[in-house]
Amino acid sequence: MLMRSETNISSFSTTLSIPSSFEAIDDDDNKMEAKPFLSRSSSYDTVSTIAPSKFYRLWQRRIASETSLSSLLGSGRRLSLRQDLRRAASDTYLVTRLSFKLLRYLGVGYRWITRFLALGCYAFLLMPGFLQVGYYYFFSSQVIRGIVYGDQPRNRLDLYIPKNSDGPKPVIAFVTGGAWIIGYKAWGSLLGQQLSERDIIVACIDYRNFPQGTISDMVKDASQGISFVCNSISEYGGDPNRIYLMGQSAGAHIAACALVEQAIKEAGEGESTSWSVTQLKAYFGLSGGYNLLNLVDHFHSRGLYRSIFVSIMEGEKSLCRFSPEVMVQDPKIRNSVSLIPRIFLFHGNEDYSIPSDASKTFANALRRVGAKAESILYDGKTHTDLFLQDPMRGGKDEMFEDLVSIIHAGDSKAWAKHAAAPLRRRLVPEFMLKLARTVSPF
Fold this sequence. Notes:
Layout: E1 2-4, H1 43-46, H2 55-60, H3 69-72, H4 81-106, H5 110-125, H6 127-139, E2 143-148, E3 156-160, E4 169-175, H7 189-196, E5 201-205, H8 215-232, E6 238-248, H9 250-267, E7 280-286, H10 292-302, H11 306-312, H12 324-327, H13 334-337, E8 342-348, H14 357-368, E9 373-378, H15 385-393, H16 398-407, H17 412-420, H18 430-439
Parallel strand pairs: 1-9, 4-5, 4-6, 6-7, 7-8, 8-9
Antiparallel strand pairs: 2-3, 3-5
């Protein structure tokens, strides 16, 4: 385990890219059929990976007209302002709907009224940054939104593409967080923008949330999104030999579940798969939880009540199946663990939403069974510091530098370019960031 202090800035480096589109949500909120974690008829095989040889075939499958690949590269017409504003309004409606859905399921008691008031204050203080990131998300030609990767509701992903097109780029398939209830692909916009500036493509994968789906649906969606990236990213300038998987908070848990399930399938006999864990160079978990048995009571005390959480996870008996830390220690799947790529777990040691012990114990469990794993802790950082406040602060931040350094390791040209790049600009004044940290409900 490594500890990063505030004064010890790592020499690491990274880059990313962005996509564009809005997609409708299926209102079938009551569809919560439980599914086994290790179903022999793999959910990933029932929907074939979309891998068109030409961009226009993909374009025709979108529910709304998208910026063509040619316009992304600077040659072609741009979407009209009216179309972009319409999509911005649609996405705003979706975000508002997700917020009310969360309120509906968590209840309207005193605790959650105060938490939502704190969330409102937190969002208001970070609004200067959100507005700038939102403008980039909706209007940048480097973002391709709403690419279809499956046939279920919300089977869409966004791509963040670097401006520099001199050769294939490393790729991160990113699964966003959201307490398994309000996750949305646009939550990865800031990370996507900043990584694309370091010559890294980012694919932010959307997935069904509760109650539209339960955990097995989320894992299925994430796996299909990963499959699309592994099989089709070369169409967008990505290097299929340099693909990384990353998740944040609940997204880190979902991505880890997808990774372990895929390894188990590959180690079995006769399993047909659309992607392989060997296609991934590494997994990055940011502020994630990997042992639900240890977290269910903690989440209950934080307001994600046990009854709701157990429903999301398809019952008490399923908590083990959806706990990657528990699964990798099962002697019956020891051969599967050997397939898992190197794992890096980033966590702030003042994270109260998901304690940093979640990353430390998962890394220890992986090492005990022979996997390569490392937990990197950041002194004084909370659940949102690493993902929001630090990136909005501008300049250099430890986690971002560590991430880029790992991805560009061995690429001297990319490393030199990163080292010479100007510091990231500040998006929010310091006093507002400090106030936001104080009132944050996370």
